Each structure stands twice: as C-alpha cells, then as structure tokens.
Amino acid sequence: MIFFSRLSPKAAGRRRRRTDGRRLMLLGGLYLVLLAVVAVLVATFIRPQDITVPAARSAASGVTVLTVESRGQSFRFDMRALEALPQRTYRVTTPWYLRPVTFQGPLLRDVLAAAGAGSGTRIEAVAVNDYAATIPFEHAQAYDVIIALRMDGKPMSPRDKGPLFVVYPYDRLPPEVRELSFGLSVWQLDGLRVR
C-alpha cells in the first residue's frame, strides 16, 4: 500500500508561494540575460561614428542648403559656399531662448550679392516647411541681417532652428523694427526669392 502525504491547505499555499518566487527569480534572470545580449548586439552593430548630423552631411557632400531666386535665375549655395563668405557674429537676446545666444554667419546682403541679386524691393524668405516671411529689401542694407550658420559656435541642427536661420542684430534695432524682426526671422531657411 502506498501512502500519499497530504499537505494541509496552509502548507500547500506556502509551497506554492516559494515555487512562484523561484519562477519569478528565474524569469527575471532570463530577462536580464536577454537585455545583456541585446545591448551587446546594439554595441556591436551600431557605431556612433556612422551616425551623421544633417548639417554636417550637407557641408561635407556639397548638398544645396539655400537657393536664391532673382530675375528668373536661381543660384544654389552649399554650406561651404556660405562659410566662404565673410562672417559676422552677434550675441543677442531673443524670445526663443532664455539666455543671450551667439549667432554667426554671412550678411544677407553678401549672400544676395554672391547670387547676383543685389537689388529688389522685398525678399521672401522660405523655410523647409514652406513658412514664408517677406523681408523688406532695405533691411538687408540697413540692419546687417545675417544668415546664421552657427549658434554658440556650433552648426545648428534642424531641432535648433538650423541649419540656416535669418537673424537680425535684435538688441541694436529701433523698438518698432525689433518687434517686426522677430516675425521675419525665418529658421530652417531653405530659399530666398528676391522681387
């Protein structure tokens, strides 16, 4: 005759709990091992040096970053061509940043002259997302507007309003022009249409 030992319900519950705890520890350990394997695979196959920033890629490969249209002609600039023009630097206070920011880039009037668009009445500045603002042509002459390529010494990513940004010397403008200039400061600039 075979005797079966019966556990009291209380003892069976404790045994089940101990078994459940062991299962949880085993599953947790397997989960950690799986995470470690994924981390090793990611570290092996994804190299930070292979990841490029769009602005840096544009500068290196000669990709057009700005198109200037005037009198039926269009002129294309890559980042190197814009960097080859004389650069201006402004440290300005803006409504977009909590602290003063330093911008660097060529004067708008120098960019227009290099493109053969030295005269007109207005400049339509167009962003990548098709946002457009009409800048009076005389602003390019009177207020030293720049096409900023760098912010605080670094190329601007699209997240930082780059790679190109129309920037006025805001702190030196008359109050009525200063307020107007914020609406004319097109970031992620893609094109200029001179009329």
Query: Strands across the major sheet, in which order?
Result: 2-1-11-5-6
Poorly predicted residue ranges: 48-60
Calculate the mean pLDDT score and round it. 85
- N/C terminus separation: 107 Å
The string of secondary-structure elements, in order, is HHEEHEEHEEHEEEEHE
The major β-sheet equals: 5 strands, mixed
Strand fraction: 25-35%
Q: What overall form do the CA principal axes indicate?
A: elongated
Task: Please report the total strand number as a whole number.
Answer: 11
Q: Give the count of helical stretches.
A: 6
Radius of gyration, CA atoms, in whole angstroms: 30 Å
Structural class: alpha+beta
User: Helical percent range?
Assistant: 25-40%
Structure description:
The chain is an alpha+beta fold. It has six helices and eleven strands. The chain has helices spanning 9-45, 54-61, 79-84, 108-114, 137-142, 175-184; strands spanning 64-70, 73-78, 87-92, 101-106, 122-127, 132-136, 146-148, 150-151, 154-155, 165-167, 189-194. It has a five-stranded mixed β-sheet with strand order 2-1-11-5-6. A four-stranded antiparallel β-sheet has the order 3-4-8-9. A hairpin with a 2-residue loop joins β8 and β9. It is elongated, with a radius of gyration of 30 Å.
